[in-house]
Amino acid sequence: MIDSRSRIRGKLAPFFMSLETTVFTFKIKVIFKEWAVVYDSEENIQINKERGIVCLNQGVKIDDPTSVILIGQHEEGKSIAMFTDPILKH
Fold it and tell me: Which of 23, 25, 71, 73 could bridge 57 with an S-S bond, Cβ 3.0-4.6 Å?
């Protein structure tokens, strides 16, 4: 039994990372179904996986097929990579 939180944190810190969950809403230039085909491609999934980005959910506004909501989980500070990295397809 470990009697101090600081000891737990100190010994296990390298094994844990801070995760963020981010909700993005944005416009796309094609309808959602076309966008989803690219976003859900094996290539894009692998790129996100390599960067530690996990898509928890994606959806489209009912009355606007070009308004997307994307919920992602990732290491702290990496969410912006989905939109700034030219390799990632979104």
Answer: 71
